[in-house]
Amino acid sequence: ETEVHHFIGKDITYFHCLFWPAMLKTAAFNLPRKIHIHGFLTVNGGKMSKSKGTFIKAETYLRHLDPSYLRYYYAAKLSSRVEDIDLNLEEFVSKVNTDLVGNIVNLASRTARFLEGESLSPAYPEDGGLFAEAAADARAIAEAYENCDYGKAMRIILAAGDRANQFIERTAPWNLKKDPAKHSQLRDVCTIGLNLFRQLVIYLAPVLPRLAQQTGELLNDSIRSWDQAQVPLVGNRVAPFKHMMTRVPKEGLNAILEESREMDEAVSGEQMSSGAESVPQKTVDSDETLQREPLLPTTITIDDFAKIDLRVARVLTAEEVPGADKLLKLTLSLGGEQTRTVFAGIKKAYQPDALIGRLVILVANLAPRKMRFGTSEGMILAAGWGDDQVFLLAPDDGARPGHRVH
Question: At residue 92, does pLDDT exceed 50?
């Protein structure tokens, strides 16, 4: 009754989909129910390189960083299509710190501390439909997992995490803690926050089993079933909070790269024979960019700048615009129900699927502009010039949709 699924690289598709099944059938072994084909893995946009330290072995990674980081990053990148994946190390740090630590685990750290040694509310409090909405997400998340569209599953989970974090921001349990008369209200708020956190962890359990185990220990109820996300947990005693996940330490990432770096034999031999020593070179930036686009001669005041409402936004959807050579249609989340549709001229520089889930900077108070493809409700910031020399601007670690850029 067990289904057999094979996961292979795209370079062996011909053999594995034709000859290997024939060999299995002849040998009376069960054939795979489905074959999942993955693309290649690149690092920082290029092939793995020993000299650059990007030919990273699993055992080297495990000596320095939590495997949960990499499991989540790959899940967020994988779709049901045959596509290459790029392990961009800057994006890796940003996604882990923003999505896992700043969004998911942040819910527990901001609520569990206030109920250490106490019990959750005996009945689940009114939460404005947040638990029910996340419970309804279960079907779409399960379908995404079944279809091996793990990136879609992560996006649905993160959207629920955004809603939960906005609830915590509004109710501010850290302020309720200051007034002993509001302890009952504090317990209700933390009960809601921890239940919303537990739902997300149940959905993430296939990717982050260790986090599921830690959550079970925190709330004295082990995570065993997908259906647990449908029923709130009440009355359970909350254990002392322990750090579940920390931000990616840059020294750990640097140690991985340094340990993985091996000079090519030819380069190493040439240096040894010439006696040349490696001398750090001073970086001198070219003035080519300023020559192409000189600085504006006019200046503005701080009041002029304050008129621009710059906000952090997350890309929910990205799609090509039929009949447009340069445009992509983006749906951006500012948090909660606040979304904007933006037509951006970045088609030649970015693939739509690579944008989904990314944080961008949105000019939120730009007057809507009617175009023949639809109405654009803002503009995203980018640097560069031309149609294919475009580089999107993104916030640093910890920023969330809705944050204002000052």
Answer: yes
Query: How many residues would you count in the chain?
Result: 406
Cα distance between residue 147 and residue 269, in whole Å: 50
pLDDT at 392: 86
Antiparallel, parallel or unpaired: β 338-344 and 328-335: antiparallel
* Cα three-residue angle 256-259-262, rounded to 5 degrees: 125
Residues in Cβ contact with 321 at an 8 Å cutoff, skipping those fewer than 6 apart = 327, 328, 329, 343, 347, 373
Q: Which residues contact 316 (CB under 8 A, 6 or more apart)?
A: 155, 159, 331, 332, 333, 339, 356
* Bridge partner residues of 332 (DSSP): 315, 340
Residue 123: both structure tokens together: 């009945």
Residue type, 215: T
> What tens digit of pLDDT does each residue of 274-313 get?
444 444 445 567 676 777 678 887 888 887 787 899 999 9
Percent above pLDDT 70 for the chain: 91
Token pair recorded at residue 179: 């007034």
